[in-house]
Design a protein that fits this description.
This protein has helices spanning 2-17, 112-123, 151-163, 170-173, 189-204, 223-243, 268-274, and strands spanning 20-22, 32-35, 39-46, 50-57, 63-68, 77-83, 94-100, 108-110, 127-132, 142-145, 175-179, 208-215, 251-255, 276-283. With 289 residues, the protein is α+β, with helices and mostly antiparallel strands. The longest helix has 21 residues, at 223-243.
C-alpha cells in the first residue's frame, strides 16, 4: 500500500515538473524600448507564446500586460512567481502575487505595484513567471516566464525615458473645469497650476488642434452681469494660457452666463459648481506616440 502511495506522489511530482513552459532563452532574450514624452514601453517577445510589455504613460504609474498570440491559452487565475534564472542555481523563488486573465482574451494585466515588483525582480536577475493549471482549458500546467537576460541595460534606457515624461497625459487634461468665488474673476493659485499643466501638454502635443475655453456663471444677480462675469472669467483663462506659451490661434473663447448650469442652482454648493470655466482639448484621431 505504501508503495502505491509513493508511486502516486512521484507521478504527481513528475507531472508538476513537466509543465508546458514558454520563456526566451538567453540567446533569444531581447528587450525593445519605445520612448517619447508621452509613453515609455519596454517589450519582450516570449517565443511561441506572445508579447510581454511594461508601459509607463505620462502622469501615471507603470503597468504590465502579457498578451498571448492565441487567445484561448489562459483562463482564470495565475500565480506570479519570481523564479531563479538559469544562471542563479540555488536561488529561492518567491511569490509576487496572484493575477487573473481577462475573460475571452487570455490577456494578463498586472497593476502598478505588482508591475514594479516584477521590474525589481528582473533587475535582480530573477525570472517573473506566470503559473497556471488552465492551459487551453485543460488541467495541463503552464508556465510563462519573462527572461531577465539583457535586462539591466534596457532598464537604464527605461529610467532615462520616464525621467523625460510629461507630468500629465491627454486623458488627464482633455476635460477640465476651474471654479470661481461668487462675483469674482481672478484666477486662484490652484487654477494657475492646473492651467500651467494644460499648457505644458498642449505645447508638446502637436495633434491638439483646438482648445475651447467656455465661461459660465450661477444665476444670482442680473443676467447681463452674469454674462459679463462669464466673459471675463473665460478671457482671463485664455490670457493665462497664452502667457504660458499656448498658441493664440488654437484657442476658441466663448461665454454663456447662466445658460448652461451643470447642476440646478438650488443651493450654495450647486451654484459654486456652476461658477466655472471649462477647458476642452480637441485633437486629431491618431494618438501621439
Amino acid at each position: 500500500m505504501r508503495f502505491w502511495l509513493l508511486f502516486i506522489v512521484l507521478c504527481f511530482s513528475f507531472q508538476k515538473a513537466g509543465a508546458v513552459t514558454f520563456r526566451a532563452s538567453i540567446d533569444e532574450s531581447r528587450w525593445e524600448m519605445e520612448s517619447s514624452q508621452f509613453v515609455c514601453r519596454l517589450q519582450q517577445e516570449v517565443p511561441s507564446y506572445g508579447v510581454a510589455v511594461f508601459e509607463h504613460q505620462a502622469g501615471e504609474s507603470v503597468h504590465f500586460t502579457l498578451t498571448p498570440t492565441q487567445k484561448q491559452q489562459v483562463e482564470g487565475q495565475a500565480k506570479l512567481v519570481a523564479e531563479a534564472s538559469p544562471w542563479q542555481p540555488g536561488a529561492d523563488p518567491h511569490l509576487l502575487g496572484v493575477v487573473r486573465a481577462v475573460p475571452g482574451s487570455g490577456v494578463i494585466e498586472v497593476p502598478a505595484e505588482l508591475a514594479k515588483n516584477m521590474l525589481a525582480a528582473l533587475y535582480q536577475g530573477m525570472t517573473p513567471t506566470f503559473n497556471t493549471d488552465q492551459w487551453y482549458g485543460t488541467p495541463e500546467l503552464l508556465k510563462v516566464g519573462i527572461s531577465a537576460a539583457n535586462f539591466q541595460s534596457a532598464y537604464t534606457d527605461y529610467l532615462n525615458c520616464i525621467s523625460g515624461l510629461l507630468p500629465v497625459n491627454y486623458r488627464q487634461v482633455a476635460r477640465t473645469a476651474v471654479l470661481f468665488p461668487s462675483g469674482q474673476t481672478a484666477l486662484s493659485d490652484a487654477t494657475r497650476e492646473r492651467l500651467a499643466l494644460i499648457a505644458t501638454y498642449v505645447k508638446a502635443d502637436n495633434s491638439v488642434q483646438t482648445i475651447y475655453v467656455d465661461g459660465h456663471s450661477d444665476n444670482l444677480g442680473r443676467r447681463l452681469l452674469n454674462r459679463d462675469l462669464s466673459k471675463k472669467r473665460a478671457e482671463d483663462v485664455t490670457r493665462y494660457l497664452i502667457q504660458q506659451g499656448v498658441p493664440e490661434d488654437r484657442i476658441v473663447t466663448r461665454y454663456h452666463g447662466e445658460r448652461y448650469p451643470v447642476v440646478p442652482n438650488t443651493s450654495a454648493e450647486n451654484r459654486a459648481r456652476n461658477r466655472r470655466v471649462t477647458i476642452r482639448l480637441e485633437r486629431e484621431e491618431a494618438p501621439v506616440r
